[in-house]
Design brief:
Oligomer: single chain
Structural class: mainly alpha
Order of helices and strands: HHHH
Radius of gyration: 21 Å
Largest sheet: none
Number of domains: 1
Helix content: over 70%
Length: 102
């Protein structure tokens, strides 16, 4: 019985140590916002920025400033995804004629 009890205590202690080592949401939010900005700048240079990407980055920064890190991460992930997809779209369509660029 003592062995089972000590094993349970050990598992609980190990879980708290593992949870303490997790990356804080604030740092994750900052990293994702930074990545989204970099990718969006690349898409701007390619003249293929999507409409909502910059709006999502601004929402993410506002949520981060209000310490709402979960929503900040959500918006930053969406912005990063849109920026990457706009670059992918450009790469797939770069050999086609684009009438607006002429």
């Amino acid at each position: 019985m003592k062995k089972i009890f000590s094993l349970i205590i050990l598992l609980i202690f190990a879980q708290t140590l593992y949870a303490a080592g997790a990356t804080p949401l604030k740092l994750v939010s900052e990293k994702l916002i930074k990545e989204a900005k970099v990718e969006n700048k690349k898409s701007i240079k390619l003249k293929n920025e999507w409409r909502d990407t910059n709006k999502l980055i601004k929402k993410s920064m506002k949520a981060h400033a209000n310490k709402d890190y979960e929503n900040s991460i959500l918006f930053a992930e969406q912005a990063l995804n849109q920026a990457k997809m706009s670059i992918e779209q450009h790469n797939k369509q770069k050999d086609n004629v684009r009438f607006l660029d002429e």
